[in-house]
Amino acid sequence: MLANSPPHTDLIATVSNRFHFKAIVYILVILFGLGTWTNLAGVWIQLPIITPILPESWHLPAKLTLIINSANIFPILIVFASLVFKFNTSSFEVPVNFVLLCTSILFAIAFAFLWDKTADLFGTKQSVYLMGLCFITAITDCLSSTTFIPFLHRYEPIYLNAYFTGEAFTALLPAMIGMTQGIGKSDCVLFGNETNGTLIEVHHQPQYSVQTYFLLLSFLPLSALIAFTILQFMKTGRSKIKSTPVKSEHKQSSIFILMDNIEDIDVIQNTIATINNIEDKLKKPKKKPNQLKKFLMSEPGIFLFIVFQCSAMLYGVCQGLTTFSLNAYSVTTFHYTIITSQFAYPVMTLVGAFIPEVSSKIIYSLYAISTGLFVYIFLTAKLSPCPPLVNQMFGHLIIFFVWILMNLTCSYIRILMGNYFRKNLGHRGLICFGIATQLGALIGATTNFALTNTFELFKERNICDKTLQCF
């Protein structure tokens, strides 16, 4: 009997070890994807709890939406600057990622202790600490998208899917923690005597405080930091082939031909004359009288407008109307609608993996449905403090499912449009897609801020005001 094991046994063991190491790297990349966006997701989930406590009250979501969308412009400017001046950022990606992950942990702790701190600003109490933290966090989170993904280019393409899985969990995990936290109930307590007394709404604490919630949330970027550190010491999964820039062989504008062994000079002269005529025609500026109109009426132009409007509706206006559209029904409806909405994008990302493309008719149908749902949400906010069916359970269910469907349809439209522009217009199309998304969100947030804070179009509901009768 041979003492040594057969060669194929060692081969199987080696393959098995490689598979295990790749699985470990895959999990580490998922954890790395948890590094950012968790804090802002946590702020939105805590809105039903912090809104009645902070001085901005029901106007808080509109202000936060404008602040966050304004902050997202700065990293985009940095990216454009790096493209214009041709900065090589690859050498800075690792240290910058370490800094971003550390700051994400610190910001979570800062949110825990500073979310309810106020200061006098323009003669009124303002939640300057919360707004300042949201502004800086939005900058770092958006900046992470420009450094985290390029860092993963060092790895095999399969690990990019792992990163997006982790990024999807940045919405799911804060929502699941919020579900365990619950929502504190509120009661109307009489202050003073029965004749001249006033009913005041008193809010009770949930299962655990906002401070505890953000401290628990800080473990997500901490796990991302640990995973990122381990990845630095592991070589498994790294791309072995480094992409080198291919130099173009056609840099010159003029057209050259090589004519060997041609004895007929007339043929050469005629050929050169033809080439010169072609060059002259190419150098003449072409008139484009209706190019903009032609693009806007084309399918890419229409799809770009759909991206713009969906971003304006979902990320701009709707986020600022959460209190007026949902809190008017009840704080419980507000709380669980916000939490359930966080599941929309991860779910539609999964759907998009199996159905990445659909026909134009389906896209237009989804767009029409999302617009109709938006109109209903806007009407409920406008009719606050007495939105439709506010005192009936059926009305609570309707607004709950309207918000969920709005998030599902707009998220899926965004995924479909991203796939469309990547496939048909390439890198340039994705840039246009990103600009339309950010511009739509910013304009929507600005419009909603003006309607909410300047024109005061929407009204709060005081559940303790017995003079207000809603039917």
UniProtKB/TrEMBL annotation:
Q: Does the keyword Nucleotide-binding apply?
A: no
The record's listing under Pfam families reads: SLC52_ribofla_tr
Which UniProt keywords are given for this protein, alphabetically ordered?
Cell membrane, Membrane, Transmembrane, Transmembrane helix, Transport
Protein's UniProt keywords contain Oxidoreductase: no
List the transmembrane segments.
23-45, 65-85, 97-115, 127-151, 158-177, 213-234, 302-322, 334-355, 362-381, 393-417, 429-451
Give me the reactions it catalyses: riboflavin(in) = riboflavin(out)
Name residues in a coiled coil. none
Membrane topology, as annotated, equals: Multi-pass membrane protein
Where it sits in the cell: the answer is: Cell membrane
One cellular component term (GO) for this entry is: plasma membrane
Q: Which residues form the signal peptide?
A: none
GO molecular function, a single term: riboflavin transmembrane transporter activity
Task: Relate the protein's function as given in its record.
Answer: Plasma membrane transporter mediating the uptake by cells of the water soluble vitamin B2/riboflavin that plays a key role in biochemical oxidation-reduction reactions of the carbohydrate, lipid, and amino acid metabolism.
Q: Which family does it belong to?
A: Belongs to the riboflavin transporter family.
Q: What is this protein called?
A: Riboflavin transporter
This chain's source organism reads Adineta steineri
